[in-house]
UniProtKB/TrEMBL annotation:
InterPro entries hit by this protein: Cys_rich_dom
Domain Cysteine-rich intervals: 5-85, 130-224
The organism of origin for this protein: Gimesia fumaroli
GO cellular component, one term: cytosol
The name this protein goes by in its record: Lactate utilization protein A
Length: 248
């Protein structure tokens, strides 16, 4: 029986990049998932939590649980939003077995493809030099890839999936897991620092020969895409789900 998947779409994707949600849906359905998009879903509360408004997060956390608890899996094309659910909802639930079950079955999109569906190779062709940005939440809270400060065997399922696509050359960065500077409300409160960090990331991709910049988080790509447009850099920006959907 096909797994019943609840598709969890972040606010900025819903409002600004709906094509990313559609690409995620198409990819999951291609691999045999029975996907539903609960229209009653709301923001997970991450912006409020980032600014210290923790009381406002509680109702959203409880609503999220009620909406998604019945699915076999909850899948989201954003590491930061998944991290919010798995690592920052605990204070709103005390000894709640339904929430513990929800945490265990909530996954970032690439994580679900590789770890749960066992996908290790993608068909299709994408003849481009692709630069992979590793977002902070996915890297250091969800551990979706190895980070440079840890002396461990390198791993990275998203990179492996990209490299399995015919024609893809993943570019080599000088600083492969540095923050892009977005950081949610940090980009508003510390605009100058945020922009300088984003410019550093874009420059690293430019020197590496990146033609298509991708990531597991559209929020990071949104930040760097703005810099790329203003500086008129010849780099195309695509969420990783868009690349997968185009190949399929």
């Amino acid at each position: 029986m096909a797994p019943k998947v609840g598709l969890f779409i972040p606010c900025y994707i819903d409002q600004l990049y709906p094509q990313v949600g559609i690409a995620t849906l198409k990819t999951l359905e291609h691999f045999g998932c029975d996907v539903e998009y609960p229209e009653s879903q709301t923001c997970c509360g991450q912006p409020m939590a980032n600014t210290g408004c923790t009381n406002e997060v509680g109702p959203l956390a409880r609503r999220f649980l009620e909406i998604f608890k019945s699915y076999d899996a909850v899948v989201c094309p954003s590491g930061s939003c998944v991290s919010m659910v798995k690592h920052h909802y605990d204070e709103y639930f005390t000894d709640n077995p339904e929430y513990e079950a929800l945490k265990a079955k909530t996954f970032e999109f690439c994580e679900y493809l590789t770890n749960e569906l066992g996908i290790d190779k993608l068909a299709g062709r994408f003849p481009h030099k692709v630069g992979l940005h590793q977002s902070c939440h996915g890297l250091r809270e969800l551990r979706l890839a190895s980070s440079s400060e840890l002396r461990i065997e390198p791993f990275g399922p998203a990179r492996a999936l990209l490299e399995s696509i015919d024609g893809v050359e993943v570019t080599t960065l000088k600083r492969p897991d540095e923050c892009c500077g977005f950081g949610g409300t940090f980009a508003v409160a510390e605009e100058a620092v945020s922009c300088m960090m984003g410019e550093d990331r874009v420059s690293d991709h430019e020197q590496a020969g990146t033609e298509v910049l991708t990531a597991l988080d559209m929020s990071c790509l949104m930040h760097m895409s703005g810099i790329i447009r203003r500086q008129q850099k010849p780099i195309r920006v695509m969420h990783i789900s868009e690349i997968f959907a185009e190949c399929l």
